[in-house]
Amino acid sequence: MSDEEHHFESKADAGASKTYPQQAGTIRKNGYIVIKNRPCKVVEVSTSKTGKHGHAKCHFVAIDIFNGKKLEDIVPSSHNCDVPHVTRTDYQLIDISEDGFVSLLTENGNTKDDLKLPTDDSLLTQIKDGFGEGKDLVVTVMSSMGEEQICALKDIGPK
């Protein structure tokens, strides 16, 4: 047909897999949704009736899973919303550095040193106190859309 060479430049990064589409009408309370490019946990969903112009609308009230901010969005129930891939991973706490970074032991025996202590005061106090007492602590790290944060703590006994 033609002798021209076609070069396609990909503008998308690996972030294309950070979310997946889901119909707005199927997202429920305690599910996840992306609002203003932030991964959020849905705390309230209300659906309005179909109006003069067609679509029923879903009103989402959600809390950002990393900073705790409340966000709201209204989407036609037949449209797709982005839903973040949210994973939780447990790591054993090895050390806490002076600058607030933690050293964690991964399943394959490597260390993960790029996480800061959580900003939540009660969790922060529990981690520092437990570590200071020499307890064996396992932290749960929630990761989504390229962000990670410690979200829970388990005490698995003295060292």
TrEMBL record:
CDD domains: S1_eIF5A
Ranges where the record places region Disordered: 1-21
Domain Translation initiation factor 5A C-terminal: 85-154
One Pfam family of this chain: eIF-5a
Example of a GO MF term: translation initiation factor activity
Composition bias type Basic and acidic residues, residue spans: 1-12
Gene Ontology terms describing biological process: positive regulation of translational elongation; positive regulation of translational termination; translational elongation
InterPro entries reported in the protein's UniProt record: IF5A-like, IF5A-like_N, IF5A_C, NA-bd_OB-fold, Rib_uL2_dom2, Trans_elong_IF5A_hypusine_site, Translation_prot_SH3-like_sf
The record's account of how the chain is modified after translation: eIF-5A seems to be the only eukaryotic protein to have a hypusine residue which is a post-translational modification of a lysine by the addition of a butylamino group.
Keywords: Hypusine, Initiation factor, Protein biosynthesis
Family: Belongs to the eIF-5A family.
Function: Translation factor that promotes translation elongation and termination, particularly upon ribosome stalling at specific amino acid sequence contexts. Binds between the exit (E) and peptidyl (P) site of the ribosome and promotes rescue of stalled ribosome: specifically required for efficient translation of polyproline-containing peptides as well as other motifs that stall the ribosome. Acts as ribosome quality control (RQC) cofactor by joining the RQC complex to facilitate peptidyl transfer during CAT tailing step.
Protein's name according to its UniProt entry: Eukaryotic translation initiation factor 5A
Lineage summary: Eukaryota, Viridiplantae, Streptophyta, Embryophyta, Tracheophyta
